[in-house]
Amino acid sequence: MGEHRQRYNEEFKKQTVQFIQGQTKTVGDLAEELNIPKSTLHQWMSQYRELKNEPAASVDRVRELEAQLKEMSRQLQEKDNKIADVEEELAIVKKAVHIFSKPRN
C-alpha cells in the first residue's frame, strides 16, 4: 500500500522558504531536518524565493550582487549624463527664447 502524502498550505511553504534562506546549511541537510523531500523544497524555493531575504554568504551570491551593483551604477551614470545633456539643451533654448522674444526696434 502507498505512503500517505503530506499536504502543506501556502503559508507553511512560504515560511519554510524564508527559514531556508536564512540558513547557511544546504537544502539537503534542511530537508533531512524538516523531514521533507529535497525536491519538494527545491520546488518551493523556485516558487516562493525572495532574494532580498537571502544572506550574502555564498560566493556566487556575492558575485551576483556585485554584477548587479555594477550594472545599476552604469545605468545611473548614463541617466546622469542624459540629464546633464537635457539641462544644457534647455539652457540653450531659454537663451534663444530670451533673444528672440525681445522687441525689434
TrEMBL record:
Top-level lineage group: Bacteria
BP GO annotations: DNA transposition
A UniProt-annotated Pfam family: HTH_Tnp_1
Entries under Gene3D superfamilies matching the protein: Homeodomain-like
Molecular function GO terms recorded: DNA binding; transposase activity
Entry keyword Coiled coil: yes
Keywords from the named record: Coiled coil
Coiled coil: 59-96
Protein name as annotated: Transposase
Species per Swiss-Prot/TrEMBL record: Paenibacillus odorifer
Species classification: Bacteria, Bacillati, Bacillota, Bacilli, Bacillales
